[in-house]
Design goal:
- The chain has nine helices and seven strands.
- The protein is an alpha/beta fold.
- A seven-stranded mixed β-sheet has the order 3-2-1-4-5-7-6, with helices on both faces.
- Helix 7 packs antiparallel against helix 8.
Length: 230
């Protein structure tokens, strides 16, 4: 567990400045469409209080802020200072000043029933105790509140071999070329492989206290969006 926490911190300290560029290269720009689909599933409404966990470079936060408007409240959190600073600064450059908190998703520093919506994009797989993090997200949601998780998942079986070759062969080389860091992208490939598949994550969300849990496969299952209601 200590090794995972250290590696996650080191990975994102290393890649923060090139994170968005690498996402574009790895996904062919598709990650932007996946995030917009997640927002469509989340349906943020004007005036709502929203918590964006593992905000990273702020892509989801920017889209959510546009929808909750000035009457709403959006809080950005991340365990990694470098990533949170990138996301905060990007929003500041767009004229949006949002509250930010560096914190562990397994110990959220917010009261019970504080938010209408919690979102997390490509962050859950990096959390050491996913069950604990999901329980914390349920705790800070109001009754009837929604959790939306966008994450890498299990690709369709006929493509699994080719996907592994891309993940463990191409990604580290790409990381070396663009970010001068092959090891971080080897870790990212490993974290994707170890993350629970679609059905398992659905069960974990139900066990954490969510009802009406649904998921949508994107990119033939390489990515999935899960939504649950407290």
């Amino acid at each position: 567990e200590a090794e995972k926490a250290r590696r996650v911190r080191d990975v994102f300290d290393s890649v923060a400045s090139r994170y968005d560029l690498m996402n574009d290269l790895m996904s062919g720009g598709m990650h932007r469409l996946w995030k917009r689909f997640a927002i469509d599933v989340a349906r943020p409404r004007p005036g709502e209080a929203v918590l964006d966990v593992a905000s990273g470079s702020g892509d989801l936060a920017r889209l959510i802020a546009e929808q909750v408007g000035s009457s709403g409240r959006l809080v950005m959190t991340d365990i990694n200072h470098e990533m949170l600073a990138v996301g905060r600064d990007r929003l500041l450059n767009r004229g949006r000043v949002l509250p930010t908190a560096r914190c562990d998703a397994e110990r959220l520093p917010f009261g019970d029933a504080a938010f209408d919506l919690v979102t997390v994009a490509f962050g859950l797989r990096n959390m050491t105790h996913k069950e604990r993090a999901l329980a914390e997200m349920a705790r800070v949601l109001k009754p009837g509140g929604r959790l939306v998780v966008l994450e890498f998942s299990q690709i369709a079986k006929p493509l699994a071999g080719a996907y592994d070759r891309f993940s463990f062969g191409v990604l580290p080389r790409l990381g070396k070329w663009v970010a001068n860091d092959s090891e971080s992208y080897r870790y990212l490939a490993e974290s994707i492989r170890m993350h629970p598949d679609q059905a398992t994550l659905k069960t974990m969300m139900q066990q954490a206290g969510f009802a009406s849990v649904d998921f949508w496969n994107l990119a033939l299952g390489a990515v999935a969006v899960h939504r649950g209601v407290k």
